[in-house]
Write a structure and sequence with these properties.
Elements: H1 14-19, E1 22-27, E2 30-36, H2 50-64, E3 77-86, E4 94-104, E5 108-117, E6 122-132
Antiparallel strand pairs: 1-2, 2-4, 3-6, 4-5, 5-6
Keywords: Hydrolase
Family: Belongs to the thioesterase PaaI family.
Organism: Cupriavidus gilardii
Length: 139
């Protein structure tokens, strides 16, 4: 486990669960997601599908800026913009998306991420803008 958080709250994201993407660490403006590649994650050429890469990078950047409430639950945000550079292929092993917040305001924050293989190969990078959701008022 990485040093960003002592305990990891649940990602609470059905799509990530379905794809097998695990929240490994979150807090203090950082986030790490991991995925053990399976045949279902690959495209026709036998390498990881670009949409899987985009999903991991988007989630890592987005979660990096989420506040963690006193009960340990994560806040919410929406992606306003995401730019991805696909650099290398991967077809087996574990992928790790590591993100950090580069700048934050009251409602918007900016984050960047790297996706690497377990062999240390840089697969893709991303930069994005995210808008925090307003907390819901209890009735």
């Amino acid at each position: 486990m990485t040093p960003f958080a002592a305990t990891v709250p649940p990602a609470d994201n059905p799509l990530l669960d379905y794809l097998g993407i695990r929240l490994a660490s979150v807090g203090d403006g950082h986030c790490v997601f991991e995925l053990d590649l399976e045949p279902r994650h690959l495209n026709r050429q036998g390498s990881v599908q670009g949409g899987v890469i985009a999903t991991m990078l988007d989630a890592a950047c987005g979660y990096a800026g989420l506040p963690v409430g006193p009960d340990g639950a994560l806040g919410h945000a929406a992606t306003a913009m995401l730019s991805i550079s696909y650099l290398s292929k991967a077809s087996a092993g574990r992928l790790r998306a590591m993100a950090s917040v580069t700048r934050a305001g009251n409602s918007l924050y900016f984050a960047s991420a790297q996706l690497t293989s377990d062999a240390g190969v840089l697969i893709a990078t991303a930069q994005g803008t995210f808008k925090r959701a307003r907390p819901r008022l209890e009735n």
